[in-house]
Amino acid sequence: MIKFLRLSILFGMYFNCSVSSAETFDKCLVNFYKSKAPVVVSEKVRRLNFNLCFSNSAVLYSGLSKTGLYAAEFVSPESLQLAKKIKRVDNFHEEPRVPMVYRSMLSDFRSSGYDRGHLNASANRISIQDQYDSFSLVNIAPQSNYANAEDWRLVETAVRGFIKNTNQPAYIITGTLFLGKKLRVIGSGVMVPSHFYKVVVFPNSNVIGAYVQVNDNSGKIDTVSVSQLESYSGIKYFPSLTGSDVLNTRFKLPMNPNEASKKRHIQVDQQNYSNVFNMLPNPALSTNRPLKNPKSTQYKENLNEAKYLGGGVVSEVVEKGGILLKWAFE
Predict the structure, then answer these.
(1) What 3-state class would DSSP assign to 132?
(2) How far, in Å, CA of 133 to CA of 55, rounded?
(3) Distances (CA, A) of 109 to 67, 113, 213
(4) Distance between alpha carbon 49 and the CA centroid of its chain, in Å?
(5) Distance between CA 277 and CA 289 in Å, rounded?
(6) Rounded to 10 degrees, what is the CA torsion of 99, 100, 104, 107?
(7) Mean pLDDT for the chain?
(8) pTM for this predicted structure
(9) I need a labelling partner for 267 at 20 to 30 A (CA). Which of 76, 115, 190, 304 fits?
């Protein structure tokens, strides 16, 4: 473990990890609301992160989970017009900027039973380079087939539809959660998220809300307030809005293209919390195959460090004086 920690420090210094996140995201702050990148407040989530700028997006990648923690993008009606002209080419590839020991590999997903789920949607990309960037494995996480092909696809399409129908831009942050103590892994240590989430900001409407989906084939998905999501993710998504009531508001975001086509304004949901975070993936509804025989000592050490990546975030926030609602413990 001592060797592992020393190696982590060395990689952090050499590859400019989250210790200096403000510097690395300086080149792509246009993808964040008010040009302010999220702040990772949880010590558990902060370790071994890599801030990566791409041609039209930004990704915070975890060397522990070997997935993106979140990916950010700015999407407008104009950018979606450009995206329509870009043909999808499935160029999944490994990310050379991530040290090999923390890098997810193409082989990790083979015969895993999980789809390679995008964080930043490939359908939002505005150029060939942008499209290629979206297939970097740092922008990918293991996702159940039904979730990827059905509910999440409908949500992505709904967000695009609302942007076009209302002629307004949006800032989008899509990420992964690792809740519960029995997290699954595939390949050489790629962790399977318990949930996927998508935060959407419509600045012209003063609407900031989020979708959260359970990562199995159950079809469980819901909308939540940003504050509720933050209490489970350990990330403050909008530092410039700390204390704002809009973060505590749960909005009725469109769940599918049909809803998006009928909405011109997004209403407030009177029920201010969701139970979706208490719904963990059901093994019987997962499509993955169990991992056999850990492949290396490094794999074991990474897993040992990461197995409670999501566990304890809520209690950690409370211990540091964070504000949480009663539902977080029920």
Answers:
(1) helix
(2) 7
(3) 12, 8, 21
(4) 13
(5) 24
(6) 160
(7) 81
(8) 0.81
(9) 76
| C-alpha–C-alpha distance, residues 300 and 311, integer Å | 18
- Count of other CB atoms within 10 angstroms of residue 230: 25
Measured between its terminal Cα atoms, the distance across the chain in Å is 35
CA distance 297 to 33: 41
As a whole number of angstroms, the distance between CA 215 and CA 146 comes to: 9
Strand 190-191 to 67-75 pairing: unpaired
The amino acid that residue 185 corresponds to is V
Domains and CATH numbers, the chain: 2-329 (3.40.570.10)
According to DSSP, the residues that pair with 118 across neighbouring strands are 140
Rounded Cα distance, 280 and 291, in Å: 19
Q: Taking phi first (over 0 means left), then psi (-120 to 50 degrees means alpha), and beta for anything else, what does residue 54 get?
A: beta
Distance CA 288, CA 193 (A): 12
Give CA–CA dist 29/36, Å, rounded: 7
In which band, very low, low, confident or very high, does the pLDDT at 98 lie, cut at 50, 70 and 90? very high
Contact call for residues 149 and 217 (beta carbons, < 8 A): no
Res. 309 pLDDT band, cuts 50 70 90? low
pLDDT, one tens digit per residue, over 170-229 is 999 999 999 998 889 999 999 999 999 999 999 999 999 999 999 999 999 999 999 999
Estimate the crossing angle of helix 2-14 against helix 297-306, to 10 degrees.
80
Q: Are 285 and 271 in contact (CB under 8 A)?
A: no
Q: State the Cα–Cα distance between residues 44 and 302, nearest whole angstrom.
A: 13
Nearest of 237, 266, 232 to residue 163 by alpha carbon: 266
In the chain, where do the E strands start and end? 39-40, 49-53, 58-62, 67-75, 115-118, 140-143, 170-177, 185-186, 190-191, 195-202, 207-214, 221-224, 235-236
String of DSSP letters for 78-119: HHHHHHTTSPP----B--TTS-GGG---HHHHTTSS-EEEES
Mean pLDDT for the stretch of residues 162-174: 96
